[in-house]
Specification:
73% of the residues lie in helices and 0% in strands. It has 3 helices and no strands. It is a multi-pass membrane protein.
Length: 95
C-alpha cells in the first residue's frame, strides 16, 4: 500500500518541523546553564521543560510516525501512552 503525499501534507510537516525547532529554542532559552551563570534546580522551569517535551513527542509521533492518519484507536493509544509516560516523569521528578 502506498501513501500519497500532497502539498498540504508537506506544508503541515514543514509547519510542525518549524514548531519543533521553536520549542527546542524555547527549551534551551529556559535552561539557566547556557548563559554561564549558576545552574540550580527550578521546579517551574522543569515543569515547563517536561510539558514542552510532551508536546514535542506528540508532534513527532503524529506527524513523523504517520499516526495522524492511523485508526482512531491507535491515535488514542499513543496519546494515552505519552500522557502516562510524561506524567510518570513529572511525578518522579517532584517526588
Amino acid at each position: 500500500m502506498t501513501t500519497r503525499i500532497t502539498a498540504r501534507d508537506n506544508r503541515a510537516i514543514t509547519t510542525v518541523w518549524l514548531a519543533l525547532t521553536a520549542i527546542t529554542v524555547v527549551s534551551w532559552w529556559l535552561a539557566p546553564g547556557h548563559s554561564g551563570g549558576h545552574a540550580g534546580a527550578s521546579v517551574p522551569i522543569t515543569i515547563a521543560a517536561i510539558m514542552l517535551g510532551f508536546v514535542k513527542c506528540r508532534l513527532i509521533v503524529r506527524y513523523f510516525m504517520e499516526v495522524r492518519t492511523a485508526p482512531k484507536w491507535l491515535r488514542h493509544s499513543t496519546d494515552a501512552w505519552l500522557a502516562t509516560l510524561w506524567t510518570a516523569v513529572l511525578v518522579i521528578y517532584l517526588w
